[in-house]
Design goal:
With about 350 residues, the protein is α/β, with parallel strands linked by helices. The protein is about 25% helix and about 20% strand. It folds into 2 domains: about 210 residues, L-asparaginase, N-terminal domain (Rossmann fold, 3-Layer(aba) Sandwich); about 120 residues, Rossmann fold (3-Layer(aba) Sandwich), CATH 3.40.50.40. It is elongated, with a radius of gyration of 21 Å. It starts with a strand and ends in a 15-residue tail after the last helix.
Amino acid sequence: MHIHFTYAGGTIGMTDSPRGLQPGADLGGWLPRLIPGFTETVCTRPPTIPPSPQSPAPGTSSAPGATYSLTTLQPLLDSAETTPYTWQQVIDDVQRHAGCADAFVVLHGTDTMAYTASALSYALFDLEQPVVVTGSQLPPGATDSDAAANLTGAVYALTQGAPRGVHLFFGGRLLAGNRATKTSTWSLQGFESPNTPPLAVAGAPWHWSPRAPRTGVGWSAPLPYTAHDVPVIDMAPGLSSARLKAALTPAPVAVIVRAFGVGNLPAAADGPVNVLAQAVRDGVTVVIASQCPQGEVALGRYAAGAGAAQAGAVGSGDMTLEAAYAKLQFLASQGLRGAELGKWMGRDLAGELTAPATRH
């Protein structure tokens, strides 16, 4: 088995400095100590078929003939600095090695890890090999660091036969990448998947969820990510229409409005719904999300949400904010705009969205 690592930056590769943590750890020297059964080599051979989770599989220290390769992206970034162009750097590196690697691990900062995992899931839907994105809350040299556990957990998930798709491993759990969201700045289990269960939980032995059918229509031969103006606006009691209008001037490509509950907004005649209706008329794709991490948007359930739907806004279903934002960037990069872009937001591209017929 050959695993290719893409090192994009983040705490998992940081060291202390007078200005705080910054990229610079010796990842090339650290990796061989964590995966002693793997030999570094150039990624040049055809991929093999990894085992399935249901079959016996070797651990990372005893996989016969196991090899790995490593790409360090430049510049290494704190993940707070990532953009859609950074996502594309990772995608390009994975695609360059798709002909010789059996699986991929992306090492990334935690702040925007769920955004990147979601973005990869749309662009790499047709990739035959699994991808696991991971990182850490503490740098490798820190006492009680989670860096080694997360990296070796990601590798072990792949040697156990993680399914196709983009996943996120953190704090002992393997999550669907476009269903994960960061929920803690300090907990070593810093990510949750609020609307779907984990794919696997590390333990002795690992516990794998029943393999569900892969969903998503995908996108054939996607164009690269480019950056588009997509603001995210949180509603709050008393937020004025004037402030909302100012935030949408000039008109962006799309906007995510994080509303209350299942997508409710103030229904007053001079309230935000009129501003959003004008934005739709101006060609802006208006997506209504919920401030609640668990649940789904249902714009017709309350009168307070019906106005947004009548104005031409679309709901985000049970997508995470990260999945919805990356999806808008992906679809906008494919040239979609306005109502067409909104229509595609309601389609399951890569498992990020529960189909209405299967929701409870």
